[in-house]
Amino acid sequence: MPDERTLSPATIAVTAGRPAGPGQPLNQPIVLASNFRDGGEYTRTHGTDTWAALEAAVGALEGGRALAFASGMAAASAIVYALAPKVVVVPTASYLGVRSLLSEYASQGIVELRAVDITDTAEVAAQAIGADVVWVETPTNPTLDIADLPAISAASRAAGARMVVDSTFATPLLQRPLEHGAAIVLHSGTKFIGGHSDLLLGLCVTADDAVYDRLVQARTFQGATPGALEAFLALRGLRTLAVRLAVMERNAAVLVQRLRQHPGVAEVRYPGQGAMVSFIVRGGAAPADALCAGVQLLVPATSLGGVETTIERRQKYAGDAHVAPGLLRMSVGIEDVDDIWADLAANLPPA
Ligand SMILES: Cc1ncc(COP(=O)(O)O)c(C=O)c1O
Question: Counting atoms of ligand 1 from 1, which one is nearest the CA of 168?
Answer without folding.
Answer: 1
